[in-house]
């Protein structure tokens, strides 16, 4: 029997990269997965990959919208009757030196990476607390543990996710509501976020420069990673799966670093 058999999970940013790998991993282990994103084409692709698995279905959700969060949580409750795992993974990274960081770019990253996590946890917590054992995993970054030049706005959001996670973990523990809350801190993981990072947070799939940007970043990431290669989305999904499963029943308020050794130095 799968490690998530009989459980219901909601994963944000599930159309691409790490979120897609997490949604597929949870579905593979038997969860009924609601895969949420603003990118409906990407979601359709992800759900097609899961066709042979257990249940996985798309849910349109802009994590910056409180109203959309309320709608998706209500839909999960109506359809599945419970929620056991919430993976707040949707994120955006826009690189710029501080003096070139516009207020709009600062706010866009705050809105998705930090407001989105707050809205999600607040909206889903009552349903999670009724599950009799549930898990929230917030995807932060190594940039939420150490400063990265050129990513100050992004670091601010990811550092916020780290401590928000710990505070909510303690509130849930004190409430004895059975909800564990942890953060995951990926190092360099090969996903489209690398090309978006250098293109105002957006992907331009038709552009020849996308592969060039990916290749350039791949090399930089390999050089900066002690293990000598960038990670794959599945490397993060394995950690998220563990934290969502009952195997992690004594783990809360923790930060799981999966970074090829970057923060060991
Ligand atoms: P990605 O760009 O491949 O996927 C991000 C997904 O989030 C996309 O499907 C996108 O449509 C979705 N998204 C963006 N804004 C949204 C919104 N307002 N509402 C709903 N969905 C939205 O990126 P990746 O790499 O898979 O990133 C996932 C998470 O991992 C992010 O939080 C990122 O900051 C974090 N991370 C990634 C690292 C990497 O090297 N790839 C390293 C450390 C952290």
Please outline the helices and strands:
Blueprint: E1 8-12, H1 17-28, E2 32-37, H2 40-49, E3 56-60, H3 66-80, E4 85-88, H4 103-129, E5 134-139, H5 152-175, E6 179-186, H6 193-197, H7 209-224, H8 233-244, E7 255-258
Parallel strand pairs: 1-2, 1-4, 2-3, 4-5, 5-6, 6-7
Helix pairs in contact: 1-8, 3-4, 4-5
Bound molecules: 1,4-dihydronicotinamide adenine dinucleotide (NAI).
Compounds present? 1,4-dihydronicotinamide adenine dinucleotide
CATH homologous superfamily caption: NAD(P)-binding Rossmann-like Domain
Considering DSSP H and I runs of 4 or more, what fraction of the residues is helical? Answer: 40-55%
Roughly how many Å is the radius of gyration?
A: 17 Å
| Uncertain stretches | none
Number of helices: 8
Structure explained in plain terms:
There is one protein chain. The chain has 265 residues and is α/β, with parallel strands linked by helices. The protein has a single domain, classed as Rossmann fold, CATH 3.40.50. It has 8 helices and 7 strands. It has helices spanning 17-28, 40-49, 66-80, 103-129, 152-175, 193-197, 209-224, 233-244; strands at 8-12, 32-37, 56-60, 85-88, 134-139, 179-186, 255-258. Helix 1 packs across helix 8 and helix 4 (103-129) packs parallel to helix 5. The N and C termini lie far apart (40 Å). The structure holds 1,4-dihydronicotinamide adenine dinucleotide (NAI). 1,4-dihydronicotinamide adenine dinucleotide binds at residues 12-13, 15-19, 37-39, 42, 61-64, 89-93, 112, 139, 141, 186, 188-189, 191-193, 196. 1,4-dihydronicotinamide adenine dinucleotide (NAI) is lined by residues 12-13, 15-19, 37-39, 42, 61-64, 89-93, 112, 139, 141, 186, 188-189, 191-193, 196.
